[in-house]
Design brief:
The protein has helices at residues 2-9, 14-26, 31-38, 42-54, 75-102, 113-126, 142-158, 228-244, and strands at 58-63, 66-71, 107-112, 131-135, 163-168, 186-191, 201-205, 208-213, 221-226. The protein is of the alpha+beta class and 245 residues long.
Length: 245
Amino acid sequence: MEHRELLASLGLSDTESAIYLAALEVGESLPKHLAEKAGIKRPTLYTLLPDLLDKGLLTQSMQGKRRTIVAEDPEVLVEKKRAELATLEETIPELRLLLRTATVKPHIAFYEGLEGLKRVYMDNLRERKTILNFVGLENIHPDVDLYARNYYIPQRINRRIPIKIIVSGDPTSKRLRLKTDPDDYREIKMVSREQFPIPLDGYIYGDNVSFLLFRSDSEPMGVIIRSREIATTLRSLFELIWQAS
């Protein structure tokens, strides 16, 4: 049942899942035997077979006048989902343009808890534009620290998204060691923590701004503001500080 639920999450119906799981177990088989193993009637198998063949989950061959069916590697399902996700990510900027033209008022979204923070972090990666970041690294929640090091930063580097970071105080935390590194598409500048305290994590990307409260002594929360005017203003202030640092 767990396997069927997993396959259902990848887009297969319950009957399609039964057929595919049966094919994985029995190997190359005749339609009659495959239907029996899946617990379905042969007409049902013949009805669903073309779609499963199109999805690349099953292949068939002829041995004389006998048709046999064999299951393909389940990795094809994962690759299909990856391709669908990549296509969706490519359309997000276009969809956001429609959102911006629908209203001149800034759109603000709030997120709570660690899972909410992850959604805010991923938002600036989906934009696929240079990120401006200002942050203080002291007293970061350990789960956020771990997420940044093991997922967010590698994802940003893998997508080749440049980032410029103004760090208030020490550019290191328990796990993070931030430094200028061309291979990581990262530039770092530091300001005095005493003169310019930054008790949160802030990002400017595209026409968006996001703020995250991630300290271990406070409740995690984040906010995304979608506004060209606000993003342009904060970008100008960021560049002013960057050039003066």
